[in-house]
Specification:
The chain has about 140 residues and is mostly helical. Helix content is about 50%, strand content about 10%. It has a 3-stranded mixed β-sheet.
Length: about 140
């Protein structure tokens, strides 16, 4: 899903940082810092989506204690806190849906507190960092 389509924007109107599973890593954080510090971006949106394959794969890998090759364990490790929170909270939906939402919330928090740049901009109210979910079936975006 291209964020420009979800928000009715043209090419180049949105500075998008994409990573499977919507988690913050050092490379992504540097991109967000560039967007905020250099480009003056006022809003950072962590946009999860329904039926996220990366979160689903992380849940399965954690349940089965899979030994994954390459750097795939990094994705599982990054998503694991959201899965654990979702398991504890059990808000009534399925684990996948709950884990996707928790993953968005955790990464919003990480970006709000990422020192030095994003934390300072957030604390000074020069940026907003929010989370939302994109429903693949309906195209609807809802804040979380």
């Amino acid at each position: 899903m291209a964020p420009e389509l979800a928000f009715d924007q043209g090419p180049g109107d949105i500075f998008a940082v994409r990573v499977a599973g919507n988690f913050v890593n050092d490379g992504g954080l540097a991109n967000f810092e560039y967007a905020v510090q250099v480009l003056g971006v006022p809003l950072v949106l962590v946009l999860g989506h329904t039926s996220c394959g990366a979160v689903d794969a992380a849940i399965k890998a954690l349940r089965n204690k899979d030994k994954l090759p390459g750097h795939l364990p990094d994705i599982v490790r990054a998503i694991k806190p959201a899965v654990l929170r979702a398991e504890r909270a059990r808000r009534g939906r399925d684990l996948l849906s709950d884990a996707i939402v928790e993953n968005v919330r955790l990464n919003v928090s990480r970006l709000q507190t990422a020192a030095p740049i994003l934390k300072r901009f957030h604390d000074e109210r020069r940026i907003q960092v929010i989370g939302a979910m994109y429903d693949l079936a309906t195209g609807r975006v809802t804040l979380v």
